[in-house]
Amino acid sequence: MNAPEQRPSAAAEAPALAVAGLTLAFGARTVLRDFSLRVAPREKVVLAGPSGSGKSSVLACLLGFLEPAAGRIEIAGEPLGPRSAWRLRRQLAFVQQEPDLGELGVAEWLEEPFAFRANEALQENLARVPEWLARLRLSPAILQQKGPELSGGEKQRLALVSALLLDRPILLLDEPTSALDPDSRRAVYDLLAGLDRQTLLMVSHDAGPALDFADRTVRLPGEEAARGA
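The structure corresponding to this sequence follows.
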């Protein structure tokens, strides 16, 4: 009798995200030097640090939008570079700190990504919109509103809904609760805590007890440490 097939352990899997020796510089100013980070599949990590420490820039590098001065990045074990960036980016869903819906209606904006061939097979995920809205304390009536009518906190939560609908294996979140009141912020954290299939890397200015949904917090040192002060 053949032995049952065994799934590889989490330890044997390639990291979902791997950053090695990352240095970020803008002109003569170095904001991050020789930074390394490994995020395991399905791990939830908060990237914390003061303003100007390079948190959002790390996300931009992972997305292939910003080229570091030095360092290596891998997504699911594959090096990120000019030739692989577009393809690897399809494994990532990104939530900006200040999402822009433009003049679109909310329902139209949520449906728009599924007009692209790469996302056509995921159209059935739109059936989960009412569920996500309820969990994030958003009224179904918001679907009838337009971008300019929304508050910053409403836009942030809708951007999270949009990211979840795409069902990507890796979520990158840039201060996704900065415009929220405490109750809405807690709703977001409770939702994130329940995600058991996605890898999560979230940028946060703070790293207090409210971020208890995360497996760990990684602190960036700030500009002074990057300069070697």
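The longest helix spans residues 152-165.
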